[in-house]
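Suppose you are handed a protein chain with no further information: no name, no annotation, nothing but its sequence. What can you learn? This example shows the usual starting point.
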Amino acid sequence: MMVAAAVMAGFIADRIFGDPVYSFHPIRLMGYVISKGDMLLQRGGKTAKFILGALLSLFLVAVSWAAPFFLLLYLYRLHWAAGLAVEAVFCYTIFAAKALKDESMKVYHQLEKDDIQNARLYLSYIVGRDTESLNEEGVAKAAVETVAENLSDGVIAPMIFTFIGGAPLGFAYKAVNTLDSMIGYNNEKYAFFGKFAARMDDTVNFIPARISALLMIAASFLRRMKARGALRIFLRDRYKHKSPNSSQTEAVCAGALGISLSGDSYYKGVLVQKPTIGDSLRPVEKDDIKRANNLMYATSWLGLIVGTLIRVVIYYV
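A reasonable first move is to predict its three-dimensional structure. Written in structure tokens, the prediction is:
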């Protein structure tokens, strides 16, 4: 019951205040360790790089789990209220729903003011693709994709792992996710050093990505969006991506909104060809950013309710 209470308190705190910004934020510390490890361990041949990258990944995940585990073990033994309070704060730093909404809505507000230059600028902070030549529809489309893709690894997946193993397992998941976002690239620099991190991320997100998609379909029904379309596009297009997980929620979002997402994009001046997801029943518009965020929050609340009910049932059975 303590875990469920901590998750709920942490999620509500994130909903109200957003992600706290301070130097010793746990995710920032993870990023610091990865950066230092990248700088110190990127050496040797292909095999050496793979082994050193794997060791860095395993070390960070282990520390990210062990540090909060033993701290909370001590605090809960000291007093349940102390443990619950700290675990709730930990959960608050794990979830990123409001940050996802706020950053994407910055793009929306610029489009609302017909300021395409600033819309592209704000978009560049949250996507990896080139944004300089995107028109209004392209900017809105990229922002919607970001919300849809990050629903799973930014909110639902960490929520699932935290419900299962408390804040320690939630932080372990965030370590995996942060490793993938920093070194899990299939390029010349990280093809071997970051390969273990990328595969680990694919593995731990396999089930959560699909749970996120199913919750999103249910949420699209509750929000009176195109729930049938969400299910149909999910079944048809959920594997239209190199990653086995990235298209799961993106397909649902495209179907729920009746739009087409993904497709060819430029990354650092290089055209990357990708299949489209969804049916283009209408052009993507700036208000779709708001709709995607509404769907993201409905899915998040649904995940919170379902997870809490499961923890309560397990506690009393």
